[in-house]
Records
---
Amino acid sequence: MIWTDADGDDVGDAITLLRSAAASLEGDLTRRRARPGTRAALDAAMAALLALDDVYFENDAGQPVPEAWARARHLLRKT
């Protein structure tokens, strides 16, 4: 994987959206109830993480890394 400026932007976007989701979750914890805005923040954060598939799930030749995809499938099944 060759890191590009676009990849850096995607990582920065993911960080921002994850922080927003974390803040929303902390607010829910304080209020002891789930709010609709938290679901939207989590959806946005998950979408941003999925956009990072080429950065963290492909090798330098652009081929999928089987171990990374197997781990992702395992984590999705646990939910």
---
Amino acid sequence: MVCVSSILTYLSKLKIMIVKRNDLNRLIINDFISNKLPNGYKKHLNDKYVWSLVNELDDKVCYIKTSMGEEKIYLQDKDDVDYSVERINETIENLDAIYKEEELIDKYCSENGWTYSGT
């Protein structure tokens, strides 16, 4: 039988880890916006691309991995940073599923000539 207190301890540690990861990502994005990080910052997890920060002309942009390619978020204010942090966390939590879905989409597209060839 599993001890309830050990489950609660695990869940609290998991929440602390997620909060720390979110705080770190928010710090990285804010440093990028204030030009403390170089252009082209990329973050990978287990050799899988998760997100990146890019200067596009005069815009600061966050790209986040999706099964259909990338989501592009223009970083103009605090709400954009908060949304980016939230989407990065969702992507990390579902990273394996995102890559698997991308493979299925690519396979479907390659087998069906009427679709675009891959994502």
---
Amino acid sequence: MDAKDGKLIWSFDTIPENSVGVWATTDATDATSNATSQPRKAALAKNGDPYKTLGGGVWQNPSVDLAAKRVYFVVGNPSPDLDGSARPGDNLYTDSLVSIDLDTGKYVCHFQYVPHDLWDLDAVSPTVLVNAADKSRQDDSGGSARRQDRLHLT
């Protein structure tokens, strides 16, 4: 939103119209997912993509990298959160660290740490800006610390 006149500049849907994703078989906890099961694929064929009722709120403050012109934020869990039978597929972008372009609101990248979350493992802390370096390169990125003692960077 433009701070001067209140006009909407851009918006980003945290749940895309194609929320199914790639039918991930594992998640960031290394747990095996049964999201690819035949009953879930049958539910998708019968009911269609659940994006209109999927949830995916943004509960934490975003991080804004003015130099890179990027916004980083985490998206909450899908709904209903403990019963995945009505929401087949990965349920993009729930339980994800997402980066979008600051000027346009267009998608840049994401990391979905729990596809088809059945355990209410959405983010519990806001994103942070990180300068990560190793011997060969240095990168600025956004990160999210998780309940499983992991830090995910995009």
